[in-house]
Amino acid sequence: MSAMSVQEETSPWRRLWASVPRAALGNLLAKLVIVALGLAITVLVARQGPRVQGAFALFVAVEAGLLTLFSGLGLWLARQVSRQQAGEPGATLPLLRSVLRAAVGLGLVAALVLLAVSWWADTLPYAQLWLLALAAPFLLLVPTATGLWMGQGRMWPLNLAQVAAPASVLSGLAVVWWLMQDVAWKTPTAVLVLTAWVSGKSLVAVLTAIYALHDSARHDEERAPASLVFQGQRPRWWMEWGFVATIGITNVISLLNYRASLFLVEHYHGLAVVGTYSVAVTVAELLWLLSSSVTVSAYSRIGHPDRAVSAAMTVQAVRINVLSTLVAAPLLLAGAWWAVPRVMGEAYVASVEPLAWLLPGVAAYAAASSLSAFYTNHLGKPQLSGMVASLSLLISVSVALALVPTMGAVGAAIGSSAGYILAIVVAYAVFLRHAGLPLRALWTRGAHV
User: Fold this and answer.
1) Residue 66's pLDDT is what?
2) Is 300:421 a contact under the CB 8 Å cutoff?
3) 371 close to 315: Cβ distance less than 8 angstroms
4) CA end-to-end distance (rounded Å), the chain
5) Digit-coded pLDDT (tens) for 349-369
6) Rounded to whole angstroms, what are the CA distances from 392 to 221, 252, 330, 420, 423?
7) What's residue 115's pLDDT?
8) What's the domain count of the chain?
9) How much is the pLDDT for 4?
């Protein structure tokens, strides 16, 4: 026993590595592939010039707003499925069908709004939002359908759907540029990029939904006795529309927390500065690779009905996320300082200083995904995540409004970092209160609920 105690005391990193969910490593590997594909797309776009990169970044930000606004459907499904995994009776196929129908319907409504904006706008990228409108009914299928596998804690189909999207986009870009190499000068590069982006993602979305329906039916057949026992009224997402809507609004606020600075920079300094700053943002958010992988893989267990189980899993995830990002941040900065101008062009030297200001806040905010999962999947209170994200947004925008006019992208980065750091302190305090844990729980093993 004494030898074991000495080994435990002298091997904290071994204990930390052992505590990483195995599924998180698979999800991390998938995310590394996604990042490699995403960086390849970014490099291809960025080398067309900062203005094209800026237009692409803003277009993708609008698309992300669409996806996050209706992300509550997928997370509602994940919550229901995780309860079934914990022993509650019920079938998944009816739940999946209902949320997929809702995703298509809401996508059609969003398409009308995007068409109106595109008709009214005359500048990049807003005049091209009609492309996003055509894809809107399909794009919502992926974040909705993957709620099935998130709730089950099954990573490989979720990973496959996430990897397939950028792979399809990159393939589409290669094909389009090959086919149009003789007439590419007649077609704006930005339009080619955006067309390949929405086409590839739409194709993957439809295939993901089809597979999810098939997989859900098979899963229900395997656990048929448990699903047949369920005699009560089946849960319907519209019966919990407040929960779904709150998640959507919360996630939009979170997205604004990440992307509002891009639009502020565009307003004061134009698309070219947005292009270089968006590269800094993209590189900084690479720190969230491990944190998001840990949270996704642990999402089902964080949603466990037992508070002690859920809180312990959340603390473990937060500990892993914060320590890993603190170690990785200086290495990422050094690598970016050397690689970004060489790979993307000398114009992107301007992205390195904003990156240095972004990294402290991004590293601290790595804990947010796991804390948000606790609020949403265990407590059923996504409004707590909204509160934290709103606080971060308020701080970051207030600081950025004061600094961006004179400091440009650096001012935006300082504002974002300040918002992340102050908000995560509040988020952790809220978690401790609801989990019934002491402050020392983050760094002390054996802190009990």
Assistant:
1) 84
2) no
3) no
4) 26
5) 999 999 999 999 999 998 888
6) 45, 13, 23, 6, 5
7) 93
8) 1
9) 39
Residue type, 246: T
Closest CA to 199 of 170, 241, 226, 179: 170
In the DSSP assignment, the letter for residue 377 is I
Which tokens belong to 107?
Answer: 């996508």
Confidence of residue 402 (pLDDT cuts 50, 70, 90): very high
pLDDT for 231 equals 47
Write the CA distances from 165 to 152, 160, 244, integer angstroms.
22, 9, 25
Cis omega before residue 125 (within 30°)? yes
Structure token digits, residue 134:
């055509």
Please report whether residue 448 resides in a domain: no
Length, in residues, of the chain: 449
Helix axes 50-69, 189-222, angle to 10 degrees: 30
R_g over Cα of the chain: 22
Range of the domain at 181: 12-442
- The Cβ of residue 122 has, within 10 Å, a number of other Cβ atoms equal to 8
Q: Which two tokens stand for residue 430?
A: 């809220």
Report if residue 97 sits inside a domain.
yes
The reply to whether 397 falls in a domain is yes
In this structure, which amino acid lies at residue 180? M
Asked, for residue 333, whether it belongs to a domain, the answer is: yes
Q: How confident is the model at residue 81 (pLDDT cuts 50, 70, 90)?
A: confident
Structure tokens at 207: 């295939």
CB atoms within 10 A of CB 63: 21
